[in-house]
Specification:
The protein has a domain at about 10-35 and about 80-175: de novo design (two linked rop proteins) (Up-down Bundle). Helix content is about 80%, strand content about 0%. It has helices at about 15-30, 40-50, 55-100, 110-140, 150-170, 170-175. The relative contact order is 0.15.
């Protein structure tokens, strides 16, 4: 056992794999629950808006019909499409990380293998930044609770720093070459 308290220990590279799987599960769960979008709750807000709207009946009906169409469109198209996109980004992130993390440069081609390892880890980081941007877009577009996304965004930032640590620790392969 270590004499260093757990709160003072540095995170190990294996934590990156564990957190990546947890992050993938969290993204899947968020998508299953439609990114926090509640169709019925938005319909209630449309009804409240309709009750307070001071327009003639014809214009009022047009505005409310437009809002209801938007509500249906969000649920039918947007949520479904974003579910596929976010889950695909996570799948690619895990794929790239595992590809990069499974390479152990050795022999005469150590520099080429090191560059390949680094490229895969860079791609994993890039996909995480794309996922973060996609979640930002979803949070701004959907009428839902934005606070749901805060922990996932923080987890993404933590995962990026862990992958950068894995990438940094791979520099030992270059030191062997010298």
């Amino acid at each position: 056992m270590s004499n260093v308290p757990k709160s003072h220990r540095k995170e190990h590279d294996f934590v990156a794999v564990h957190n990546l799987i947890k992050l993938r599960r969290d993204i899947t769960e968020l998508a299953i629950y439609d990114f926090g979008y509640d169709k019925d709750k938005y319909e209630k807000s449309i009804k409240n808006f309709e009750d307070r709207l001071k327009l003639d009946d014809d214009k009022k009906a047009q505005v409310i019909a437009k809002m209801r169409k938007k509500n249906e469109s969000y649920f039918a198209d947007f949520v479904e499409e974003e579910t596929a996109v976010t889950r695909d980004l996570m799948r690619k992130t895990v794929f790239e990380f595992e590809m990069g993390n499974s390479l152990f440069p050795s022999g005469d081609a150590v520099l080429m293998e090191f560059c390949e390892k680094r490229k895969h880890l860079d791609n994993a980081i890039g996909y995480l930044y794309c996922l973060k941007q996609e979640l930002q877009y979803i949070a701004e577009t959907l009428p839902s609770d934005k606070n749901r996304y805060i922990t996932i965004i923080e987890d993404i930032a933590r995962e990026v720093s862990l992958i950068k640590g894995v990438r940094r620790s791979a520099n030992k392969f270059l030191k062997k070459k010298k």
